[in-house]
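Workshop exercise sheet. Pairs work together: one partner reads the sequence aloud, the other fills in the structure field after running the prediction. Swap roles for the next sheet.
Pair: D.N. / O.F.
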Amino acid sequence: MKVILTQDIPRVGRQYDVVDVANGYANNFLYPRGLAEPATDARVAELEKKREALRAEEEARVAALKEKFETLGEEAKVTIATKCDDQGHLYKKLHRADVSEALKEQLSIELAETAILLDSPLGEVGEHQVDIEVLGIKATITVEVTKEED
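Structure field:
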């Protein structure tokens, strides 16, 4: 039975895919949970239009993101002030979420935490080069960690 998935389902398919599944699986699992709908000719044609709109939207998002990353250049820098000891060791290490929040506040760039490629949390005062990657577009930013004034 051919169905249109309304959400991503592991090992079955992604949202808006037309997949062939067993009748029992569709009738007893997918339909009652709202995970799929029947793949009628009219619905498949409507889905193709929706896919085109989504593709165009995605291309526009990628273009805007590329432009934003290019304008950032190598000068992109965020500063995070946090508590540390006299040797410059942070009391609480900085994770992807902290860098993401700083990007949002200081540079108006909203990124998912997974887009920030941080091998290990930042634990020292100083400048750190941090890579970010979104939709295959890579950029490097400088995260300056400073001592928080009391």
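Discussion prompt: Residues 94 and 122 are 5 Å apart (CA to CA). What would you look at next?
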